[in-house]
Amino acid sequence: MKTKDKQASEKMLKTAGLQVTAQRVHLCDFIFNQSDHPTAEEVWSWAQKNIDQMSRATVYNTLNSLVDAGLLKTLRMPHSDKLVFDFNVSEHFHFIDEKTGRIEDLDPKDLSWSLKLPKGWKKSSMEVFIKGRK
Amino acid sequence: MKTKDKQASEKMLKTAGLQVTAQRVHLCDFIFNQSDHPTAEEVWSWAQKNIDQMSRATVYNTLNSLVDAGLLKTLRMPHSDKLVFDFNVSEHFHFIDEKTGRIEDLDPKDLSWSLKLPKGWKKSSMEVFIKGRK
DNA sequence: ACAGAACTTTAGACTTAGTCTAAAGTTTGA
DNA sequence: TCAAACTTTAGACTAAGTCTAAAGTTCTGT
């Protein structure tokens, strides 16, 4: 791991109020610098190959801590039973390539919408998945 | 099961090109007349209580056959790891009540939207989940 | 109506993704 | 520096769903 990436991960963890541990720093480096919408199992399988000591529970604990700290969001895709993690935590939508299953971010500016909910219902968040081909 | 419901289920199965069996007729009656966005496990637990002979595999087989035949759609909700079945197969969107987890259909007329995809990308379908409170 | 083919159902083993446990190790802060 | 708080670990466990192959049911052609 590059020194600057290591330092960036450490800083991010600290800023988020999380303890800095070797395992978390390694995982953050992968999640934020080397992966794209990874599933938990992808993170775990990377960790098994690339980190000497790392248990499955630590992977899941770390992912959950990062979500709780607001550094990651979880997505559940209509086409798969796996939980997906997204380090883009600002509002945006997702495109799923039907051929490859690959997930791409869509700029929220590219979807304009207006919603009329029944009286008294209040929207707090919104998920949009576009399926299609490239 | 009411005679007219039984006949309706039989007709629906036939029309869809599926063999009519006692198990499928029972399950269809529940799915189409007595449930609302059920999960597979809800269907299975209903079946255990209400049908003498019914294996878990039959519940899943039947649900999958109904999906293949276009009579049901599957949904994967962002907030749950369970597959949900929807007998409303026409275009519509979903509202999830944050308090209860309950899923409500939204009339597609109540969400107007326009999407600008990158050159060459083609949308084939779209899922929208609104989370909020009532 | 009958035989054989095709399809469906069954119990229970299996798989996959993820959680839990409790003991050992690490980090923090007075 | 020491204790409290937090984190990691291996592996058992759980939940949701799939698979298997044998037995049962329905369909098709005559």
Explain the overall architecture.
- The structure is a homodimer of 134-residue chains.
- With 134 residues, chain A is of the alpha+beta class.
- Helices cover 37% and strands 25% of the residues of chain A.
- Chain A has four helices and six strands; from the N terminus they run ααααββββββ.
- Chain A has helices spanning 3-15, 22-34, 40-50, 56-68; strands spanning 73-76, 83-86, 93-97, 103-106, 111-115, 122-133.
- In chain A, strands 4-3-6 form a three-stranded mixed beta sheet, with no helix packed on it. A two-stranded antiparallel sheet of chain A has the order 1-2.
- In chain A, α1 crosses α2 (22-34) and α3 (40-50) crosses α4.
- The first copy, chain A, is globular and about 50 Å long.
- The mean pLDDT of chain A is 94.
- The interface between A and B is large, with 35 and 36 residues.
- The structure holds a DNA duplex (30 and 30 nucleotides).
